[in-house]
Amino acid sequence: MSQLDFTGQVAIVTGGGRNLGRGYCLELARRGAAVVVNDIDGDAADAVVEEIEREGGKGLASRDTVATAYGGKAIVAKAVESFGTVDILVNNAGNVRAGDFADLSLDDFEAVLAVHLNGAFCVTQPAWRIMRERGRGRIVMTGSAAGMYPEQGYSEYATAKAGIIGFTRALAAEGRDHGIHVNAILPQAGGSAMTSTAGPIASLKDAKFAGPDASLGPYKSVEAVSPLVVYLCSPECAHTGLALSAGAGWFGRVFVGLTNGWTTPELGVPATAEEVARHFDEIVDTERYEVPDGASDELGHIAKRLGLATG
Ligand SMILES: NC(=O)c1ccc[n+]([C@@H]2O[C@H](COP(=O)([O-])OP(=O)(O)OC[C@H]3O[C@@H](n4cnc5c(N)ncnc54)[C@H](O)[C@@H]3O)[C@@H](O)[C@H]2O)c1
């Protein structure tokens, strides 16, 4: 495969002022993209633009928040006014409020949904309209392991990140006929500004940094994640609707599987709660499973298990 080249393409990276976002901006610009570096920390965004320009690339800072419709439109308008269009959007901006759920305020819960979920909506929609019109586009959303697996102490963050996966899948389905590919990444890079200011439960912090995370630590970096983002942004990537995990030199897919499950003995006779209890191990057993391609696939799976023909 030839070098992935973005010459003539326009990219927006939200939260591009530091850590992962900064890495994506620099790498896309090195490969020829004109990059709108968005960050509410405008000084950080300016610094990344300076780095891009020092390396001979094209960049422009945007200080708008992703969390409002006004901000989202302004970010996309900047790309259009300055560089003519938008081909690539990386929704990366993030915040977190960690802590015990019993103490979590609704304000904190909503503040995190506002940046991750509303933010993804507010920037994606104006970019989407342009991409749909042009019949092409690449969107990368940012999920997190915390949104896919049980993780104590981050209920607001997990909710937002799980929502991002649903949003990714829904837009991937809608984008298929319009040449718009939407995938999500679950990075494992460390170095977040957001977690350094959040106050996770002390006992969790100890547990988190023990074991595997400590051994991966020396290998975790932004550079170990950004190649996946670059590939997903490229026209060469024909995949859509996937959630991909990356960190420390490892890349993999995270998927939703449907177990083989348990079927009632007599079709049309509903199970009793006691039968469900008795067969619960079979219901949740993951030894045999399928990975449905869409919501209707689940219906197909149920019909198959019940021995019914699908039309
Ligand atoms: N670093 C990791 O290991 C890791 C793991 C899982 C998920 N993630 C996700 O990856 C993304 C980037 O993480 P990071 O470690 O680089 O975080 P970071 O905190 O270092 O950087 C996030 C950037 O987003 C900006 N931002 C916050 N709110 C914004 C808003 N309303 N509008 C525009 N910009 C805003 C911040 O100013 C900051 O520069 C986040 O979505 C995060 O949840 C990171």
SSE topology:
Layout: E1 10-13, H1 19-30, E2 34-38, H2 42-54, E3 58-62, H3 69-83, E4 88-90, H4 106-134, E5 137-142, H5 155-175, E6 180-187, H6 193-197, H7 202-208, H8 212-216, H9 226-233, E7 243-247, E8 250-254, E9 258-259, H10 273-278, H11 280-284, E10 289-290, H12 295-305
Parallel strand pairs: 1-2, 1-4, 2-3, 4-5, 5-6, 6-7
Antiparallel strand pairs: 7-8, 9-10
Bound molecules: nicotinamide-adenine-dinucleotide.
| Largest beta-sheet details | 8 strands, mixed
* CA(first)-CA(last) distance: 41 Å
Q: What's the total number of strands?
A: 10
Name of the CATH architecture of the largest domain:
3-Layer(aba) Sandwich
Number of domains: 2
Q: Give, in spatial order, the strands making up the sheet with the most strands.
A: 3-2-1-4-5-6-7-8
- Tell me the overall shape: globular
CATH class of the largest domain: Alpha Beta
Report on the architecture of this protein.
With 311 residues, this protein is α/β, with parallel strands linked by helices. It folds into two domains: 10-254, Rossmann fold (3-Layer(aba) Sandwich), CATH 3.40.50; 258-305, no CATH class. The chain contains twelve helices and ten strands. It has an eight-stranded mixed β-sheet with strand order 3-2-1-4-5-6-7-8, sandwiched between helices. Strands 9-10 form a two-stranded antiparallel ribbon. Helix 4 links the parallel strand 4 (88-90) and strand 5. The longest helix has 29 residues, at 106-134. The structure holds nicotinamide-adenine-dinucleotide. Residues 14-15, 17-21, 38-41, 44, 65-67, 92-95, 115, 119, 142, 144, 187-194 line the site of nicotinamide-adenine-dinucleotide (NAD).
